[in-house]
Design goal:
Rossmann fold, binds magnesium ion, membrane, binds adenosine-5'-triphosphate, translocase, Methionine import ATP-binding protein MetN, 4-stranded antiparallel β-sheet, alpha/beta, 7-stranded mixed β-sheet
Length: 339
């Protein structure tokens, strides 16, 4: 649904050059919620602004719903943009207009007649749970309510794609959850593809089907959350499910085990202990539900060095678990989910 190919953006200001995007290939499938994470300055906002051409890429292409929007200009571009909704961190509402009039604004630009506009705006406010605030002014709303207005406004042009740049980072955790639930609900009910930027791993955990990690203008890892979790050495997987804990003695083997879907429900650790008569210590663990699936990571300690634990580790791998042994060289940590 959204594809960027070798996307580059170089800012030039006062003789200095900043490469904000350094060859980004992104592939967002129809109907998915896709999260882009990364440190401040990684290029996340630049990327999302290039997807709706608020920012012109220096080179590369952006395809949305089969259309190369980097080739569009004028009226064609404006029309294509109405199919791409955008939600902002600081809501960007007009304070002098009522909630309804804020939602009507893009409908005015689209040329909808007065009565039709009002009906559509009220429908959209109903959709985001704000029907009773139509005549209020932004100043009379809470942050979460303002963001709901922002979302209603973004949906005015019946977009197929919704872009969100840190839509929840100005909100408290509970309000964040309710806004994420709303985005997930809209994604399901309207078949809306959502590309969201966040610096919070919890946001990815709560709503994303897929995710990408950006660093220095490049995507270093990407894939479905399940693919990422199943990839040895994935930095995103580690940040989504951090497990701590140090070995109690140097003569032991520390193993990080990732449980996905069905494997999460199997009593593999107790089977391991029984089958090989080993004492398994749990050093750390995290369990959660991601995209409706049970996922967990656990750091365990087995007595004896790695050489002595080859068989039990093989047993875990045979059960379909993702197993990483501390200190063992890992394959290159770059995941490129090729579809
Ligand atoms: N208009 C601009 N002119 C010049 N440089 C810019 C401009 N916008 C962004 N940059 C630079 O491009 C790089 C990427 O910025 P960007 O805003 O995309 O990062 P980000 O990942 O969104 O960061 P944050 O998490 O802080 O929002 C930064 O080095 C930034 O200083
Ligand atoms: Mg940003």
């Amino acid at each position: 649904m959204i594809t960027t190919t070798d996307l580059r953006k170089v800012y030039r200001s006062r003789g200095r050059e900043v490469t904000a995007l350094d060859g980004v290939d992104l592939r967002v499938r129809e109907g998915e919620v896709y999260g882009v994470v990364g440190r401040s300055g990684a290029g996340k906002s630049t990327l999302i602004r290039c997807v709706n051409l608020l920012e012109r890429p220096t080179s590369g292409t952006v395809t949305v719903d089969g259309q190369d929007i980097t080739r569009l200009a004028g009226r064609d571009l404006r029309r294509a943009r109405t199919r791409i909704g955008m939600v902002f961190q600081h809501f960007n509402l007009l304070t002098s207009r009522t909630v309804r009039a804020n939602v009507e604004l893009p409908l005015e630009i689209l040329g909808l007649a007065g009565r039709e506009r009002t009906r559509k705006a009220l429908d959209l406010l109903d959709l985001v749970g704000l029907a009773d605030k139509a005549n209020a002014y932004p100043a009379q709303l809470s942050g979460g309510q303002k963001q709901r207005v922002g979302i209603a406004r973004a949906l005015a042009g019946d977009p197929k794609v919704l872009l969100s740049d840190e839509a929840t980072s100005a909100l408290d955790p509970e309000t964040t959850r309710s806004i994420l639930a709303l985005l997930r609900d809209l994604n399901r009910r309207l078949g809306l593809t959502v590309l969201l930027i966040t610096h919070e791993m919890d946001v990815v955990k709560a709503v994303c089907d897929s995710a990408a990690l950006m660093k220095g203008g490049r995507v270093t890892e990407s894939g479905t959350v399940a693919e990422l979790l199943a990839t040895p050495g994935s930095e995103l997987a580690r940040e989504l499910f951090p497990v701590g804990g140090d070995a109690s003695t140097p003569d032991s083997t520390v193993v990080d085990v990732t449980f996905l879907g069905e494997t999460a429900a199997q009593p593999v650790i107790s089977q391991l202990a029984r089958t090989y008569n080993v004492d398994v210590s749990i050093l750390g663990a995290a369990m959660d539900t991601v995209a409706g699936k049970q996922v967990g990571r656990m750091r365990i300690e087995l007595p004896g060095r790695f050489e002595e634990n080859v068989v039990p580790i093989g047993f875990l791998r045979e059960r379909g678990l993702q197993v990483e042994v501390a200190g063992e060289e890992q394959a290159a940590p770059v995941v490129e989910a090729v579809r």
